[in-house]
């Protein structure tokens, strides 16, 4: 049977598009398979905030942020916590290579394809431990002008040019169910053809099967994504170190992000490592205007909100908003309750709340300078105000007594004691009135405002929460929100998928979340943020270039 193309790419998300674009540049013919309709091209990257991790960028230097490859690698390794035999080889090598990319050609390469970046650099995952521990020592979160769609666009453009040249064929509504070998080389991809669907991007599409397909190629690149939409699989792989898996989870991704392709690739000999490493957010809120089932949105918080457990007790140091996602998740899942609270006021929410997702940031997504200026001038940005008015997890009241009643009514558990919460807030407010403090969160807020970017748009001036002039008071119930797999198919630095014996699985490459963003787990246990889209780009580029060289 003759080959149908030089390479088959499974998954039309960001990593798949990047790999295909590189194959097109090399003159290779490609079939791109995806189970979803064409309007879902770009996958989860489309829905993202567009954050990218750069090191020593022009944006950083303009804001007087001193960064370096050495500091970034120190932060990466301290965050990853590599401690397994399999970590010492490919995941660590991928981490070093990725930091080199982020400190080297990454920004210039993307800029050369037309991507532009918001001038204020965000400071995600601040850590709060020692210099060799988890977190970013400096701000590194660069928002793409155009958010997620702005990240996808240059690669989709390059692939569409390949279609026009006759090099690329898209096969949407093609669901892969098996890989097969010829003479020991994986060269055959087969599966089911699903009926055409007019489903809106992100919504559930039909699973009615209308036919079957089989394609052959010299190489296969798996870029099928992770498991975040498959809650059963998330729970099955939930690590013991994070406590009991939550009974209730919101979904940060649609249901078709099901992880099934990982098992299909394993069935032909691939090694899947670090499957218990995952990245889920603790600041999830139910989308009042959902696109997919159990659709949750993540709050990207500044550092000022008071973070309370289900009983109204402050979370321990340094589990402040925006400091340590996985540390917070572990604490919550051992607390006996699956939700927490932010307590804040309108002055804080207006300046410090951003919502993750391209659709929640129409000004940045639409590349509207006027919209960005309007956001900065508003008391509360429009998308955030919509959640205040309509969100199931929001309680907005003029005084603390009413706020506590609303919090207890929302959960139906009556766990919040008004006197206890008032003592917590009053004690915190006393610290605000003094230029000295022992409250490490107050220190963190004051420290954040020494950075111009935080002072301008991300951190409110310290003030008393019970100051009526700063009100109304707001409580936000926070849920666990599924998002990323950090483990995946083990790959070498050429993105070749490896077997349990450590040898390349002939004909198979992997990139993006399916490969743990490189090596089967480039992040280790934790992420510095801004590294998921970049990981798709870097590993997708690597896979595309390597496969292009390998095929005859």
Q: Which structural class best describes the helix and strand composition?
A: alpha+beta
CATH superfamily of the largest domain: FAD/NAD(P)-binding domain
Looking at the structure, the CATH topology of the largest domain is: FAD/NAD(P)-binding domain
CATH architecture of the largest domain: 3-Layer(bba) Sandwich
What characterizes the major β-sheet? 8 strands, mixed
Strand content bin: 15-25%
Radius of gyration equals 23 Å
Q: Please give the CATH class of the largest domain.
A: Alpha Beta
Number of domains: 2
| Unreliable residue runs | none
The helix content is 25-40%
Account of the 3D structure:
- It comes from Streptomyces scopuliridis RB72.
- Keywords: Flavoprotein, Oxidoreductase.
- Residues 6-533 form the FAD-dependent oxidoreductase 2 FAD-binding domain.
- The protein is an alpha+beta fold.
- It has two domains: 5-224 and 486-550, FAD/NAD(P)-binding domain; 281-481, Alpha-Beta Complex (Flavocytochrome C3, Chain A, domain 1).
- It has helices spanning 14-25, 58-62, 69-80, 90-103, 106-112, 147-164, 231-236, 260-266, 325-333, 346-352, 362-365, 369-377, 382-390, 400-411, 418-432, 440-448, 452-457, 532-550; strands spanning 5-10, 30-34, 51-53, 141-143, 168-172, 174-182, 185-194, 209-222, 250-251, 272-273, 278-286, 296-300, 306-308, 340-345, 354-355, 394-397, 473-485, 488-489, 496-498, 504-510.
- The strands form four sheets. Strands 1, 2, 5, 6, 7, 8, 19 and 20 form an eight-stranded mixed sheet that branches.
- Helix 1 links the parallel strand 1 and strand 2.
- Helix 1 (14-25) runs parallel beside helix 6 (147-164), helix 1 packs parallel to helix 18 (532-550) and helix 3 packs antiparallel against helix 4.
- The two termini are 17 Å apart.
């Amino acid at each position: 049977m003759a080959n149908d193309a030089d390479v088959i790419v499974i998954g039309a998300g960001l990593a798949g598009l990047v790999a295909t674009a590189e194959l097109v540049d090399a003159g290779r013919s490609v079939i791109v398979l995806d189970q979803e309709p064409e309007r879902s091209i770009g996958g989860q990257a489309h829905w993202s905030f567009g954050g990218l991790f750069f090191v020593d960028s022009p944006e950083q230097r303009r804001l007087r942020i001193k960064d370096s490859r050495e500091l970034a690698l120190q932060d990466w390794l301290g965050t990853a916590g590599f401690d397994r035999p399999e970590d010492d080889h490919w995941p660590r090598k991928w981490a070093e290579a990725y930091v080199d990319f982020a400190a080297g050609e990454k920004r210039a390469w993307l800029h050369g394809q037309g991507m532009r970046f918001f001038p204020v650099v965000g400071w995600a995952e601040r850590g709060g431990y020692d210099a060799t521990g988890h977190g970013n020592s400096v701000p590194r979160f660069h928002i793409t002008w155009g958010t997620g769609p702005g990240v996808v666009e240059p690669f989709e453009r390059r692939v569409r040019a390949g279609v026009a040249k006759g090099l690329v064929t898209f096969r949407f509504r093609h669901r892969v169910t098996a890989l097969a070998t010829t003479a020991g080389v994986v060269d055959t991809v087969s599966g089911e053809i699903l009926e055409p669907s007019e489903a809106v991007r992100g919504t559930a599409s039909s699973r009615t099967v209308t036919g079957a397909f089989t394609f052959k190629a010299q190489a296969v690149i798996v870029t099928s994504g992770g498991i975040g939409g498959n809650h059963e699989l998330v729970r099955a792989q939930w690590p013991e170190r994070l406590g009991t898996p939550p009974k209730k989870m919101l979904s940060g991704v649609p249901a078709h992000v099901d992880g099934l392709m990982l098992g299909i690739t394993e069935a032909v000999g691939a090694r899947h490592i670090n499957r218990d490493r995952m990245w889920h957010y603790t600041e999830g809120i139910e989308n009042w205007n959902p696109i997919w089932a159990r659709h949750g949105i993540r709050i990207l918080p500044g550092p000022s909100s008071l973070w309370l457990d289900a009983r109204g007790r402050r979370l321990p140091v340094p589990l402040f908003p925006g400091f340590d996602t996985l540390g917070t998740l572990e604490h919550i899942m051992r607390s006996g309750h699956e939700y927490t609270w932010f307590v804040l006021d309108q002055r804080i929410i207006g300046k410090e709340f951003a919502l993750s997702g391209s659709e929640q940031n129409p000004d940045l997504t639409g590349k509207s300078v006027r919209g960005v200026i309007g956001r900065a001038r508003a008391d509360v940005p429009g998308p955030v105000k919509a959640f205040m008015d309509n969100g199931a997890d929001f309680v907005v009241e003029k005084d603390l007594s009413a706020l506590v009643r609303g919090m207890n009514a929302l959960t139906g558990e009556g766990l919040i004691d008004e006197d206890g919460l008032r003592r917590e807030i009053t004690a915190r407010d006393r610290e605000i009135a003094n230029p000295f403090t022992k409250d490490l969160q107050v220190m963190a807020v004051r420290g954040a405002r020494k950075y111009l970017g935080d002072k301008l748009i991300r951190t409110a001036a310290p003030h008393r929460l019970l100051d009526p002039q700063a009100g109304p008071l707001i409580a936000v119930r926070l849920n666990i929100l599924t998002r990323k797999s950090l483990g995946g198919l083990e790959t070498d630095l050429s993105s070749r998928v490896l077997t349990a014996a450590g040898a390349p699985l002939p004909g198979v490459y992997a990139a993006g979340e399916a490969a743990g963003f490189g090596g089967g787990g480039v992040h280790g246990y934790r992420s510095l943020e801004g590294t998921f889209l970049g990981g798709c780009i870097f590993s997708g580029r690597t896979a595309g270039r390597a496969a292009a060289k390998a095929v005859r």
